[in-house]
Amino acid sequence: MDRHPARWWQLLAKWAAVPLALGGVTLASRAAGANEITAGLLLLVAVLGLATWGGWTVGAVASVAATLCLNFFFLHPTGTFTIEAPSNWVALGCFLAASTLVSRLVARARQQAAEALARQRELEVLYELSFDLFTSPLGKATARTLRALGTESGALFLAGSEPVILVGAPEVDGTFVDAARNGSRILEDGDTSYIPLRIGGGIGDETGGVLLAAEPTAPSAVLEPAVRLLALAVERERLLREAAHLEGVRESDALKTALLRAVSHDLRTPLTSMRLEIESLERRLAGRSEELASLRGLSRQQERLTRRIDNLLALARLEAGVARPHPEPTPAGSLFRAARESLALVLEGRDVQVRIQPGCPDLWADPSVSLEVLVNLLENAARAAPPGQPLELAAESVAGHVRIEVRDRGPGLPAGGEGLSEGLGLRIARSLAEADGGSIELLDRPGGGTIARLDLPAAPELEEILAG
Amino acid sequence: MTRPKPLILVIDDDADIRRSLSRELALAGYDTLTAADGVEGRELFEHHRPDLVVTDVAMPRADGFAVISAVRRTDRTPVLVLSVRGEEEDKVRALDLGADDYVTKPFSLRELLARVRTQLRRTLTAAPEILRFPDLVIDRGRRSVMQGESEVRLTPTELAILELLASHAGRPVTLRQIIGTVWKGAPATTADTVRVHVGSLRRKLEPDPANPRYIGTEPWVGYRFLAETVE
Question: Which pTM value belongs to this model?
């Protein structure tokens, strides 16, 4: 696409050069008394010059004119177009062929050089543009792109809620913007071009933008890559924004983790110290039953406080998102054993009957979270049931779940529903169970007492785990 | 190094815990040294070469991980970590660095003393050819597992896992250790592969699923063989 048609005076100069150059060479050769060979060479040089300057058509016309000049002024008999010697026919023919061929070659070389230069200029424009686009904010990048397209005025419309970037004071027709956004072709409205922009192409989630350019003059070889570069600049800006956001999220996560660690350390250190002193006193007070009894009470309270703090920290960690449950196949029996060990003091002297349905699948749960939950349920049951009454722990398979029940013979659920008197332990257990993919339900036990029911997902068949 | 009593180095930034621990360990028949942070702990370790190190994780100046690394650079002295509930990653990291075991704060003294005994016993004797537990005999030479009079039929992988766990009875064995020993670190082996085999090993081995006696789960970490060896 040549956007600069030649003016009339350029054409005139081109064609006037032919007689001027050939006439000049002829006159000079005559004046110097040159023979036909010298004159022929000089005319050939003139034709070359004309072809280089004026292109192929000028070269062709000059070739024919130079042949006629050679014949008329230098070949015997001079002053006529008559040719006597047959060898002169050959000479003239060769001259015409040589000058035509050479002017054609020269013209083509010139044209290729001109094209190469144009490509180079386009590349330079695009290179500078790409450099500017990736180092400047979007507003500046848009202005820079428009300048590469040969205009000082335009606008960039991005998807959705992103603001419009205006450069200069272009006239905007909204219907064209929408049409260009939904299409893939460049739309022209008078001198104004609406150029669709594909942003995020290839990585999913493509959105349409539109670049409006008032009176663009750049050839399409520049226009298309320039617009693609602008789309990349938009994408880069978006990614930068997202990265900044993610960085913020990560920092706040790191802060939460550090805070929870510090709290955890500060709360557990005194508890550890208390535990060690209690055990030490127990040893030293051996045989003094009254003091030992009060120490037992102290010990139980210390353990209870420890469990509450464990619960709260586990819950805080899950809710802060700094820890996610790691489910793994966990046999109900292992869980029961661990829960009883955690509650050794609370369960001291109490019969706990464990029933696991034969063939009951493993639980699919985070062993530490499910232990936290079960310990709470078991502790509640132990406190509700009168001393000496046995507790029951049961596990069975129910429709893709493993149902764990903690059964006591305490007073049962208070009238008016379970929610009212729910202690902190149970509330935390509920949240933890949900985080671990399970649920908790409290039921009246036939014959008196309460059933705390914990449903957790059953572990997939081992082969399924292996198959991923 | 032969001493009349084993020497235990206790590293914790809390003065009360240091005092209680060193008093109780002394009463249990050990000599003790105490340090308030990792830097002091490393100095005492270099100077006295204790038989066992008990270290907290979170401490000023140099933490427990730095202590473990420093100890492991020189020898196999057992290291017991005082970890914190919920910080399971810390346990895994400590064990990966070469710690031998951990107790979770607030731990009971009984539990700590049991772990200390297990670790000190380990340094004195190599695991024997025949491992005897209540109702379970593992003959590593003959590659047989007996429960009472009857033989338990195990696959070679199950047997290899059982041997590894049982020869570390009372101590945690990480999933990574199991993969490294049983599968020789084959790259395709994942934690889930290990769990599959442990699952089937449990079903064959535990006589009463309501009351497992042998293989305990250490959340995030791996497994611990629960039974104690009998002579």
Answer: 0.62
